[in-house]
Specification:
Elements lengths: L2 E5 L2 E4 L4 E8 L8 E6 L6 E6 L6 E3 L7 E6 L4 E6 L8 E8 L12 E2 L5 E6 L1
Parallel strand pairs: 2-11
Antiparallel strand pairs: 1-3, 3-8, 4-5, 4-9, 5-6, 7-8, 9-10, 9-11
Length: 125
C-alpha cells in the first residue's frame, strides 16, 4: 500500500517560514490530487491546501492565502507546503493526504485517504 510521511515541521517564531514535505512510498498511482490539512488541539481537522496531479489547479483556505504555497514533484513522489509569514494560529499538526479518487479535488477530509502520520508545527508569539 502507498504510505505518506510528512516531515519539516518544527518550532518557529511568528513571521518565520517552514517547508513541509510529504513523501509517498510503496504503490503510487498518478492522477490523484494531494491535500494538506491541519489539526490543532481541541479543534476539528481543517483543510489547508490542495493541488491537482499536474499542478494545474490549486486551492487554499482563506486564512493561508498569500502565505502558503502547495507544490509537488511527481517524479520524486513528494508534495510540499511552503509556509511563510507564519502566525501562532497556524500551530497544529499538519497532515498530507491523497484524494480518495483519481481526479478528485476535494476540500474536506472525507474526500481524502492514505493519510500521513502528521508533523507538528508550532509558531511562537
Amino acid at each position: 500500500q502507498v504510505q505518506l510521511v510528512e516531515s519539516g515541521g518544527g518550532l518557529v517564531q511568528a513571521g518565520g517560514s517552514l517547508r513541509l514535505s510529504c513523501a509517498a512510498s510503496g504503490r503510487t498511482v498518478s492522477g490523484y490530487s494531494m491535500g494538506w490539512f491541519r489539526q490543532a488541539p481541541g479543534k476539528e481537522r481543517e483543510f489547508v491546501a490542495t493541488q491537482t496531479w499536474n499542478g494545474g489547479s490549486s486551492y487554499y483556505t482563506d486564512s493561508v492565502k498569500g502565505r502558503f504555497t502547495i507544490s509537488r514533484d511527481n517524479a520524486k513522489n513528494t508534495v510540499f507546503l511552503q509556509m511563510n509569514m507564519l502566525k501562532p494560529e497556524d500551530t497544529a499538526v499538519y497532515y498530507c493526504a491523497r484524494s480518495r479518487t483519481v481526479g478528485g479535488f476535494g476540500r474536506t477530509a472525507n474526500e481524502y485517504t492514505v493519510w500521513g502520520q502528521g508533523t507538528q508545527v508550532t509558531v511562537l508569539s
